[in-house]
Queue: 3 jobs
Job 1
Amino acid sequence: MGEIEQNKAVDSLLKEMEAIAAQMRELIISMPVYDLLGYLYAQRMIKAMAEQSISEELQKVDRLEDPIDEMQFLLEYVHAVLASDIPSVETEFDETKCVELFEISHNLRMQAMSFAMVSSLNTKSGAFGPDTGDIECQAKLNWVMLRGSRYQVLEGEFYRYTLEPHNDVLMEVYGVDAADIAEGFQAMADATRSGHANAIEELMGQFESAQAFAVARREPLKDVVEAWAADNVEQSKDASRAMDDVFRGGIANVSRHTKLPPMLLADLAYQRGEETEFFAAGDFAGTPYRTLPARKKPLIQLDSDYYAVDPCFIRDAGYRALLYNLLQRKPDYKKTFEDRQKTMSEAAFADILASQFPDATVFQEVYYKDPANKQWSENDTLILIDDVLFLVEAKAGAAATISSPTLDFGRHAQSVQDLVLKAYKQCERFFNYLNSADEVPLYHLVDGKYGECGRVRRADYRVMVPIGLTVESFSPFSTYCKELPQVEPLLGRHAFISLSIDDLFVLKRFLPTPGEFTHYIEVRQAVAGMRRAHLFDEFDHLGAYLKKNRFDQDIADQLKDGKINMVVWNGMSDIVNKSFEGEGWESRPFPTQDFPKEVQKLLGALDGTRARGWLSVESHIRDLGEEGRSNLAKMLCDFRQTLDQHPARYFVLCGDGGPLFVWLQQHNNLIDWGKVNDKASAAALAVRVSNVVGVVAEASADGAYYRAQSFVVHIPTERTEENAHIYEDATRMAQPKRTVNLNQPKNIVPSEKSKKLGRNDLCPCGSYLKYKKCHGR
């Protein structure tokens, strides 16, 4: 499309949007507010129930037609109109007006989608290089679509954690602490999520009570209702509130459904007519491309109560509005506030994911002298666990700008500059420092003096992950940051990942073990290093991982097609979102990748032992596809069952990711590391590979796995007198009709007591480290 044609199309779409928005405003103003809310929330419930009942095939329909997102869009407009207009003379409720309102709302949403695409067509360059136009389009689309399908059960957890540092000031200003506020925000979310069901259950209970009352009096129900109400005052009030919840939008009444103090609710709420910008004269008046009032304050005051008309901005808009008003009421708290936010955000990664980092070495606020400029530099959090290194740079400020990407896309891009690039540059400096010497010292700053607190060798780490952490999610930019020309994999191979505290509460549930979490991060990092491969947010990445495991390889295959300019995966997060549905979500197991029971036992033994190199073996096993996992399980089971006849068995599994050499050792018998190393080396020569992952597992024939650990497989490069026996063994293993799964002699290996290793002896696993620094740790 040429520039002139594009401008005409954009102008036409803009005028159409403004006209439709004005129609919506007039319709909403003309209707009784409580009846309108009751009708809309009833329709929302009906559509949600219908969505749950449709088939999976129908659920794959494009999300532009998602009825829940359609309803969410309309509710946000109702909030905008209520915030912008004082109450007018209301007419009687008219359902035909509501039907018209739904149609007009749908039309406006479709026009806004078209505008997003047309207005971005000729953007050829910008902050995201040649992909700026595509990202600008996605930003505009997401601005309109928002987050209507978001789960709403972790609101309390988020608020409790992020507000706890400010407990004393919250008590002073509002009379409640972080736990109370968190409970209130969760109650808001629960009321809109399950309020209808609870209210209907209450009404059914009261109806049954009234019926029993009528039967006891042997009178028709209609004749005893007033008498029943007089005898059951509290139950009658409960029934009245339930009726209000069902028919007059009462589930959105946060004054009723939370214990939050009125002062706090007032700080989060608009009074009728208080908002003056959304419908003000000028371009985009009343359209979705102005900032919806719900992004500023999520509540509305109606009469003496406060309502959460829009249920999906409670987390982000509420969090920002609360902290803003806290500082407005106590401006002298600003410096302390910033210090506490910084401390909280810097500790969050290691704190929230503590179960994923057992026995890890965690450094907070580490300093080093930058070899490039000889100045002291600081990094927030360094986590060292086995052969994996995490470097986390936290940014405590608000992640998302509330300015429209249409009115000011540059400001959106600047948000990325401020949050992503600053963290990226700090990570880059540290990685360059790691690369400046074989071993580098780390320092803490205490009383103005730098004291060494540890040393790090880059060579010790198979995986190194630089992470930028924000308090709130700011998708899609967090996942699009890899398109910035300045963002390249550090040291040429370690891609940068942007996460939020919001994300961590979900990741810790779905990836509860160190092996699961670090393997996901490895795959996630691979995707983070792929330009032109887009998933909307962290939960799309998580869903893709749960469904496809090495989804980075699938995307890489798609990108190899020269006809494809960009790969976009939509809807992968459904497996994550659905896990939080229903009242019993906390008691149900979360989705996980499928592993045969025998392989799970081996992974459990690796996790339980946690000897040096264990995450490398876990990663190798988790890389296996369905067939590889099944083959590994069968071989483990077959050979493990013979351990009551043989002290040790071994085999090589070839396939996904390279060969895996497995040595199964009868429990309570000393491992002959010399034989293990020789057999592993011979197996590597037999299958003619340059790298083999080795694992030794102590097990018993009845199926128990007691310990498992990795070991280094050394592969000879030339035959000598000393290793001739290894080459001869490899020749036998490579013979036709012969497998590497050879039986072991039945002689019993001497017990461990007769061959006890000294802590300063070389570790027999072949690492050439002292036993105390390797498997003896």
Note: The longest strand covers residues 376-385.
Job 2
Amino acid sequence: MATNDRLLTVEEAAERLGTGVRFIRRLIAERRIRYVKLGKHVRIADSVLAAYIDASTVPTLREARSRFGKAA
């Protein structure tokens, strides 16, 4: 996490991902994303959301094929 990284509320994170707050809270409860606990408040760094999006992005067939080479 970068020092100048913006910390988002759960509601802002849900809006950024286009999901509900419940989904973000489940990601936190299952520890599938990193978060910051500030007293009773939970914040998610912008870079953490970007990393989650990158990790969850499914490659196209062309990208997948180029990674494994041509079929025999």
Note: The radius of gyration is 16 Å.
Job 3
Amino acid sequence: MHSMTYSAADHLARTALSSPPPHQGSSHLLGGISGGTVLVLGVAAWAIIKLRSNGTGAATAASGGRGLIRALISMSKGIGSAFGGLYKALRAVLRFVGGRELWGKPKSTATFLGAGTRLTTLTDQAPATALGSVALAPPKVSLVKRQPSPWARKTAAWLAGYHGRAERALDVTVRTALWTARTTTRAYKATRTAYRAVAPVVATIARTLGNWHCWPYAARGLARLLLLALLAAWLIPAWATWALLAALTAAGLLAALARRLVPTRPGDDAVYGPRLWVILRQDLKLPEDEPRERWLHLPQRLSDPGARIVLRLPWTFRGSELERQQVTELITSRLPGEWVGRYSFTGEECTAVYTHKPPATPKVEPECPEMVDFFDPEVQDAIAACAVGEVVLGRDQHHNIVTRRLDGETPHWALSVGTGGGKSTFNVSVAVQLIAQGFHIIVADVKRSSVKPLEGIPGVYIYNDPSNPQDMRAAIEWFKEEIDARSYVKNRNPEIEFPGLLLLIEESNEFADVSREWWDDNRKTSKDEFGPADRAADPIWGEVASAARLGRFVRGNILAVFQDLRDQALGGKGLRNLFRLKFMGNYNVNQWKNVIGTTPVPESVDKAGRMMIVEGNSHIWVQTLYGPGSDLHDWAMQRRQEQGFDPAAGLFGTPPERSAERLPSLLRGLSRDDAASGPLRASEGGLEDETAGRLSHNGPGVTALDGDVTASRDRLRLIPGEGGQEPADDPTAPPELLPLAEVARRVGPDQGVPKYDTLRQHKARRDDFPKGIEINGKEHFTVAQIVAYYTPKENRA
């Protein structure tokens, strides 16, 4: 009995001693407690049996002593393992309740009550794939042409060979496809509507849970307790009440900390600082263990206006221009914005402070004035101070008066100005200044309206009938003959001086077309006894080119307006090079390239009177002079009278006479003019016949050429001035209301009424001007009303 008890106890002790120690590491509390209890009970049982034994021998005693030592060692290890497991379990419970990470290191900078930002590990060299290397990225465009799959080719072949088979199947397929598309669209719209309502809530919850590591520790602990309480209430019914109370309490505390759950956005110092310091430390030759906070300070918001980057410099930093440039380039390239540094090497610490580069002051280009009055006193003084051939053009961008000379290197000028650019006013302002200097003016004006203010001025010869282009050609040929005569005389008497002679060609490209058509219709096409046939090319531009080359020395100048100054359009005579001074306005890119031919093309300023003077390689914007046409006419007439101008003086010949003006074809037959070149007579059939323009002659019901006509019929003349004596006005008839232009035409200056341009200015500027009656949006006046206004004020300016 004793031996059996001893054997069992000894076996139990040996089993306990030979059992391996519990696992180290993350042991649970129950495992630690159970292992320690078994060891203690085994050792106690073995000791009691040994004490009760009386018949043991020496060998047995020795063996029992060694076993006791091993048992004590095992017991101490079991107790240590139990306490270790208990500590780790308690530590895990505290970390769970405290909201800390259950394993691993912290993943954010959060504190117990403050949210944090995620921690990122930085390396000196990131792998190329992480940097989005272009070399490792797949090509965006494949150079291998992909072939369609076999089923696609078979389907295409079947469709190509389809000739009306399986109509019903095709119809069902189409209807099914349409129904599927409609159903899918409805489902998509319904899903999209539901998503728009739920998405903000789901996105907010997901964003909040996604920032779990950035929550404060207290919030994380409360969330864990809340989940644990809900789990206990679900699994253990006896704990349901206390678990729900704990869950409600945790939920309330968690709601109170909800504002702190949103992680703080990392500042620019946390985002850019570590990355910048890796490179900057190498450039400053600092040890790797130097903390960034001692050398580099970045503001939390680099975009703030007063943001400052402070960099402490080591004593070994020499501050050369190259070193400063390297640091500046690094900061500018790695940080948003542009930065400028201020270095200081005096005092205890050498520093570099970088601030935002101040915005560049916008460069405001000076503007030309909106309008330059021809009669401005300063402009008039400049005109009076001009030498012969010098002309005031206007004011430049600095509001300085600009003058140029029709002499020297710029004896001939060319204009390329779009419609509404003010070229007609420019031509008149130049012409009247030359008139004041004693110039003779020859005008070829296909446009007919460009030089109206110059009409009636002595020494001005205007040829503006497009139906008689031979008159314009004759004027240009006479200009060339006058240049030849002056050159001949100048060659024999170099001291002689001639009065200026200006040839003004308006709309030169249109004149070129009209002149070429006339030449093609009238040139001699075959040889006869008087000489060979005429050339097919129009020779008039050869005359212009020759006059331009020879006229410089004898005061023969040309002012021409072009739309296209290419040589091919003007006979290929090299006229572009003869006009060294050019005026550009309201132009487009093609016009600039055709006329000037340089790049880049400056931007056009589309304003009336705004022109660019191109002289060689210099470009100057100028606002040209402006003045009312009637005032310019009066100013030029006054200068002619002061000069005592003789139109025949200084000329070797007489300008050609103008041909009789012919009415356009649509106006012929609307008048009774008996002249052979005038309009035809109209029928006597009454008002309807005359206004309809039926032009049968000498037929029934038509008045003979030498017959009389009635007074009412004479009043139907449509061409002003061709109606003969008008009948006396009816005193009982109401006064006739007329536009201001018609009033000026009827009365004229002989009754004290100025011209229409002056009338229009007085109407706009004078407060006491008669008030008209508005008809169809336009004011109308009576003749007596205007005559009465000017009768007592004949000397009014």
Note: The chain has 23 helices and 17 strands.
